[in-house]
Amino acid sequence: PQGSEKAKTFVHAFLKRSMPRMKDEAIQDMLTRKAVVLEHYPKKKTKQKRKKTKGFTAKQRRELRLFEIEPEQQRQGFKCPLCVVKYAIFLPLHELWKQYIRDLCHGLKPDAQPHMIQSKLLKADLHGAIVTVTKSKCPSYVGITGIILQEFKYVFKIITKEDKLKVVPKLNNVFSLELDGFISYIYGSKFLLRASERSAKKFKLKGTIDL
Q: Would the CA dihedral through 56, 59, 63, 65 be positive or negative?
């Protein structure tokens, strides 16, 4: 029919304009297949780089005094130029820590498996926990008991009941903490990590007697 011839002529002319580099034989070959795929080159999308949120550097943290205890939480000791932190101020922090551990361990029940609780405590945040130095290569550290105010990679900052701030190294010290009758021991020499790093570390459950 005349309509089909016009359509064929139109398609041939359209392909010739759309693909001028293609020869007539190639166009006729495409028409015999009854399927025409026009070449199309989509524009490459440029991926936008995500801006990473930068935290404070160590120098900026020191300048901002982020890790220093506020003056209103301190009192002036008698005949002592150093300020001493009050123990009573941080007792509510200890109560919050106890509730946090109970929720983390799904309740410290008598039938709870000790190794499960131990593994969770090793990765838990210890700020607010009451710890005691049970063994140490330095006898002067043995018996120190108090609330952990700050944990660093190599030391604990502990406030005692006598309102004295103690800086106790982790190395060569064994710490114990007690909660609801469950006593856990921490070997400081195997604990030389920041609090943020411990949450991703896999601790071995194998015991050790080394300080």
A: positive
Beta bridge mates, 76? 83
Residue in 92, 98, 96, 166 with CA at minimum distance from that of residue 132: 166
- Residue holding tokens 């064994």? 174
Q: Which residues, 6+ apart, have CB-to-CB distance to 68 below 8 Å?
A: none
**What is the third-level CATH fold of 88-200?**
SH3 type barrels. (2.30.30)
d(CA 95, CA 59): 33
Q: What is the pTM of this model?
A: 0.58
Domain boundaries, the chain: 88-200
| pLDDT mean by block of 10 residues, the chain; 211 residues | 70 77 73 60 69 71 68 46 69 92 81 77 89 93 94 92 92 90 86 81 61 60
Largest CA distance in the chain: 115
